[in-house]
Amino acid sequence: MCNRFKVLDGIITCSERALHSAARVALHAFVFVFSILLLTVPTLDAQTKNSCLDCHSKLDAPLGIEEEQFSSSIHAQKGMNCTICHGGDPSSDDMERAMSKASGFKGHIERAQIPSLCAKCHSDAAYMRGFDPLLRTDQFSEYQTSMHGKLLAKGDTHVAVCTDCHTMHNIRPPNDPESSVYPVNVAHTCAHCHADENYMKQYKIPINQFALYSTSVHHDALTVRGDLSAPTCSTCHGSHGASPPGVASVQNVCSTCHVFQGQLFNSGPHKDIFSAMGLPGCITCHSNHGIQHPTDAMIGTGKGAVCTNCHTEGDAGYTAAGTMHDELEKLNDAIHTSDEILSRAEKAGMEVGEAKLALAAAQDNLTKARVTIHSVRPEAVDQEIKAGLKVTDSTWQEGLSAMAELKYRREGLLVSIVAIVFVLIALGLFIRRMESGQTGVSKESRQ
Amino acid sequence: MGIADGLRQWLDERFGWHEIRAFIEHKTVPLHRYSYWYFLGGMTLFLFVIQVLTGILLLLYYRPSANEAYESVQYIMTQVRFGWLIRSIHSWSANLMVFTAAAHMFSVFFLKSYRKPRELTWLSGMLLLFLVLGFGFSGYLLPWNTLSVFATKVGTDIPGQIPVIGKWIMVFLRGGEDVTGATLTRFFGFHVAVLPGIATLMIGLHLLLVQRFGMSVPPGVEEEWKTKPLEQREMRFFPNFLLRELMAWYVALAVLGGLAALKPWELGTKADLFASAPPGIRPEWYFMFMFQTLRMLPAKVGFIDGELLGVLCFGAAFLVWTLLPFFDPGRPGRLQRLITGIGFFALAYVAVMTMYAYVAK
Lengths: 447, 361
Prior knowledge:
The structure holds 2 protein chains of 2 kinds.
Chain A: H1 2-8, H2 14-46, H3 51-56, H4 67-71, H5 74-77, H6 83-86, H7 95-98, H8 114-122, H9 125-129, H10 139-145, H11 147-153, H12 162-166, H13 183-194, H14 197-200, H15 209-214, H16 217-224, H17 233-237, H18 250-254, H19 259-267, H20 270-277, H21 283-286, H22 316-347, H23 353-372, H24 378-436
Helix pairs in contact in A: 10-11, 22-23, 22-24, 23-24
Chain B: H1 3-15, H2 17-26, E1 28-31, H3 39-59, H4 69-78, H5 83-110, H6 119-141, H7 146-157, H8 166-174, H9 181-213, H10 219-227, E2 233-236, H11 237-262, H12 288-296, E3 300-301, E4 304-305, H13 306-322, H14 324-327, H15 334-360
Antiparallel strand pairs in B: 1-2, 3-4
């Protein structure tokens, strides 16, 4: 109390000054040491002993593990180490002790045991919630219903288990582009087995799915356009519950994305007929893995039309298919004709923005008509076509008006130029005549 | 006494018609091998008058709000009788006016017409050129299309680089932190009220100064006339020079009509403030040399920000250029040759950088 008053008063003794200096040094030393400790804590944590990696990172396959790969896996990221699956004591440098049965070491895990091992954590909702409350915990039960799971239960260890799709030591979340189950990589992961002729021989199933899928509109959307919501194998077959959809459920699978097409198909006459004939919904016309971008040629009676696979000349379906195709062609042609004249006018500098916008509405009608095809009702298709044709009639007229206006402008320009040239000549002659009579006035010398 | 004589007498009694007439009759223009450069000033004035007339007509339909501007210009282009012609002539003549004003400035520079006693004529002319550029910059935004909005964003970002006052200037120009409907309203105000008011005053002052000091004769011609006084020639302003000027205006009118009919000014697509900037954003051609320079500058030049350095350099260059008459000694010598050299360099720089900007995209 007394010292403080002295400092405030500006009076301080030598001994007190020395005390202040010592206190200051001590404080600085404390801050320095504390900072070092703070910086060291995470480092110490990160360097927690893992004797498994010390050895296995130096070994070749199949026992070798790349340290960098493991450390970037989701398990390592969440602070788990080898013991979570393999048991053992990674804190010991003694190999015998580290891999002793007493420490719970499991070593090689049999393929048949893998799903249940993973499920120990991944089916434990309370445990998984600690990492992400939105994480699913039904993978194992789904797997048991899958073709893979059923065959594994029967003792076939050739079928896919968790690690075949997710890898063993480099497991990454599905939204990681380097993950084997990232949407763009899923088809390659499945193809690893399903495109292998020797591997699939025993199951007697085709191996061309990946080759066909690679040519499909879905593959194009996913890999070229980068639309990660576009379907890949697991979108239709399921991932953990992977199984081929049954004949009756095909349209349900497709209509999860193609909602209107599904509804229209269900409301039309084809649904019951297909069921009676044992034909799967969508894929009867569109195929399954190699689905191509649908064209208007698919409907109708011409080359490439799928309707003629069942319908023959003279039946009602054959006539309806032809009518719907002709209607689509009619609107498509009308849109192209309008677009052509409007583009020509626009290129010539005419403002046709409103007409072009209206033409987009006609394109919408065409798209709706194409979707309505799935109801196979010509009168419903015709309704959309008529609405579209009404728009194209108007845009065509606007295109004609724009071209007429363009002609009018050019004629007007020609007349104006002629008039201006005439005035220029007249002015030139006038100046010449005026100056010929103004010698010494227009170009006079000052002297 | 006929009506004409009566009117003349009426005017004479009130305004001194005889004096005005005598003044017009005696006004002359020097006649020499560079006389055709004199037409550029009149041509710029003619284009300004066209701007005013077409601008007034556009005002009858244009609506200066972010919701209506684009649609109103679209309406002018498609529904209003000859609206397309008026708008296209307004836009083309604005560009031609920038060209003729710049050409007029360079002709005055190289013919040394800014020498004593015409320093103020040059100064008023330079201010008019900046006003013309201001007209161009503010008018570019008014159709409220994608290109104009994003170019205005880039354009108003540039003064924002100036230390201390830059941010304030940017906010003042934009009417806020960003380019919005408030910027459009503000630019409209600049374009149709503030700038025309100042420009009209400046044109009046410029013409008054031209009238007060007369047309300048290039130093070379002046020397020749000193040694050969008999070769000194003049042309009467009215009607001889004015009729020739009229012919040039007719030619300009034909060019404008041709451009408007064959290449009407584009409207583009309506601006969407929430969309990301489309590729190919660029200002009008007369700002391209600056735009390209700023684009080529590295992010940092030493310790200073590259763009800021560019803005400061251009600011200093324009200031020096505007004050050139005060540096020119008025007689042949090393300094005058240096000033002429700077002029050639500036012209070449503007031309090359503008062309490069279009080639480099």
